[in-house]
Amino acid sequence: MDLSTKTVINLMYTSRLIEEHIMNILRPCDLSAQQYNVLRILRGQKNNPCNVAELQSRMIDRSSNTTRLVDKLLTKDLVKRQVCKQNRRKIELFITTKGLAILEQLDPIILSANQEILATLDETQLETLNTYLNTIHN
Fold first, then answer.
1. What pLDDT, on the 0 to 100 scale, is given for residue 83?
2. Domains, the chain, with CATH or none
């Protein structure tokens, strides 16, 4: 097998293992990985509004139906939507207190899972891996 093919398959396989591990953590909170990503992006806005297009551009899984994801989060009262005062055609999104509370609950669990997933690598290896991965997608 060609080394580039082997490497891509290895990356895909590893990515899938990590996704499954994280999904097992998110499932009890009734969140998908994409919904979790939306909540993290909105929290990072620090009470500043975010619109759907901006949210879509920052998503890990850009093929997600962002509007549908936001609608599900609205139903769960994890996100709120309001009309922009300066431009009534623009919809602004914010994370709710309930959304922040779920992330606060998940933060240490996800951190621990991330550390467990990468426990076989030392800090130098992690930095090198990040450098290589950044080189691939930049």
1. 85
2. 3-137 (1.10.10.10)
